[in-house]
């Protein structure tokens, strides 16, 4: 990863953490069956775009989403709950950072 793309990634993470700290919630738009799992951006309404490798079947993409966010933001998986959108690309998550 180049220095500028690493800086952009860091800025993206900071913006997401700021939103979680302010509200405790995170709205995401998930694209399953992607080449890799990664955060790709933030939409104007503060929805975070995330690509997930897992397919959207039997909860696999949801499990991978929670595991990925847990690793990215260094919180236990138990601190991340999908409040709405279990079977949808648009999801509302509750994330407890501490």
Brief write-up:
A hairpin with a 5-residue loop joins β2 (38-42) and β3 (48-51). 36% of the residues lie in helices and 28% in strands.
Name its key features.
98 residues; alpha+beta; Conserved Hypothetical Protein Mth637, Chain: A; 5-stranded mixed sheet; 5 strands; 28% strand
Structure explained in plain terms:
- The protein has a single domain, classed as Conserved Hypothetical Protein Mth637, Chain: A (2-Layer Sandwich).
- The model has no long low-confidence stretch (mean pLDDT 91).
- It starts with a helix and ends with a strand.
- A 5-stranded mixed sheet has the order 2-3-1-5-4.
- 36% of the residues lie in helices and 28% in strands.
- The chain is built from 2 helices and 5 strands; from the N terminus they run αβββαββ.
- By secondary structure, it is α+β, with helices and mostly antiparallel strands.
SSE map:
Elements: H1 3-23, E1 25-31, E2 38-42, E3 48-51, H2 60-73, E4 80-84, E5 90-95
Parallel strand pairs: 1-3
Antiparallel strand pairs: 1-5, 2-3, 4-5
């Amino acid at each position: 990863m180049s220095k500028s793309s690493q800086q952009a990634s860091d800025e993206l993470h900071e913006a997401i953490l700021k939103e979680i700290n302010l509200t405790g919630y995170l709205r995401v738009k998930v694209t399953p069956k992607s080449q890799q799992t990664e955060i790709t951006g933030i939409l104007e309404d503060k929805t975070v775009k995330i690509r997930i490798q897992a397919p959207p079947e039997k909860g696999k993409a949801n499990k991978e989403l929670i595991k990925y966010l847990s690793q990215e933001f260094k919180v236990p998986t138990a601190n991340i709950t999908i409040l709405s959108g279990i079977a949808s690309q648009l999801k509302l998550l509750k994330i407890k950072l501490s």
